[in-house]
Amino acid sequence: MTATVRAATASNARILSSLQPPPNVVVVGGTSGIGRAVALSIAQHCPSAHITIIGRNESAAIDILPQLGSNPKFLRADVSLTSEIRAVTKKINAVDILVLTEGILTMTGRTPTTENIDNKLALHYYGRVLFVQELLPLLRSSPNGGKVLFVLDSINGNPSKINWNDMALENTYSLSSAANHALSFTDHAIQYFASQPENTNVTFTHAYPEVVRTNISDNLPFWARFPLKCSLAIGLGVTPEDCAELMVYGMLGTEKGYRYVDNKGRTVTKKIPLQEDMVAKVWEHTSRRISSN
Ligand SMILES: NC(=O)c1ccc[n+]([C@@H]2O[C@H](COP(=O)([O-])OP(=O)(O)OC[C@H]3O[C@@H](n4cnc5c(N)ncnc54)[C@H](OP(=O)(O)O)[C@@H]3O)[C@@H](O)[C@H]2O)c1
């Protein structure tokens, strides 16, 4: 463990163990990888936290639940679908910390869900925003202040490459445009949420985990997966456990409003400022998309 991770872990332990009442935590994508490690980290620092993980893999959830403190819960949902997100959020009656780590790595082109949203964009962007929107009333009333963490990529979004004429990429989809829309829209969305006066008790953090040794590449074709797995095996990237501490550290360090943090949980300084009218435009598009199903 590096000195940076050690310092982040100590800080997380200090903050999380002193929260009263213990926090209600929801980790979407908590059955695997970074989300799983975030859930375990919070449980370790605050065993009386109420931790709920959301995903589809019930057997993975059963394996991890006994390690999630005294009040663990698993809610099964396919979170690529707005209908399932609406249903699963109705089962949650308190949340202080919402962590969004659901995602996939794929080289397949546009793959519409049954709701006609591209699967990757649904997981990496639209569904995440819907989780926030549905849970905001609970986050706003959090006694210690609500916290939302988006684990995606706060560094590489490029607003100048957004296709404003095809924001959902129904006609001009490419892997790079889908990646850029998910990252850039997340940057815009957290700025929008933080600008709303009713959300002053909630912070929004978009974090970049860097390369993390998880199984996210398992569905890539062999020729793409093999070199990546070899690089990971010889030391590329960080462990999910170290990444989780740094992501949680970044989230807890956001004191108000929104913040973009890097792979060490530090503020990203070289960020192109977003224009207010573009923030409004992204929000208008997003709210239309997530309410139309
Ligand atoms: N690993 C990296 O190097 C890296 C780098 C940069 C960014 N990221 C981003 O960080 C996030 C987490 O990555 P990871 O490496 O931790 O991935 P991972 O180990 O593959 O975990 C992904 C999680 O997403 C959940 N998920 C995927 N599709 C779902 C669906 N349709 N419904 C419900 N849950 C679903 C999975 O749950 P179930 O299997 O239970 O459905 C799993 O818990 C991703 O968004 C990824 O893009 C990762």
Kindly summarize this structure in a few lines.
With 293 residues, the chain is α/β, with parallel strands linked by helices. The chain is built from nine helices and seven strands.
Query: What is the H/E order?
Result: HEHEHEHEHEHEHHEH
Low-confidence stretches: none
Q: Within the largest sheet, what's the order of strands?
A: 3-2-1-4-5-6-7
CATH H-tier superfamily:
NAD(P)-binding Rossmann-like Domain
Named once each, the bound ligands are: NADP nicotinamide-adenine-dinucleotide phosphate
Under CATH at level 1, the class stands as Alpha Beta
Number of helices: 9
Structural class determined from secondary elements: alpha/beta
What is the count of structural domains? Answer: 1
Mean pLDDT: 96
Tell me the radius of gyration.
18 Å
Largest sheet: 7 strands, parallel
- Helical content, roughly? 40-55%
Q: How does the overall form come out from the CA principal axes?
A: globular
Portion in strands: 5-15%
Tell me the CATH architecture. 3-Layer(aba) Sandwich
Calculate the terminal CA-CA distance, rounded to whole Å: 45 Å
The CATH topology comes to: Rossmann fold
According to DSSP, the number of beta strands is 7
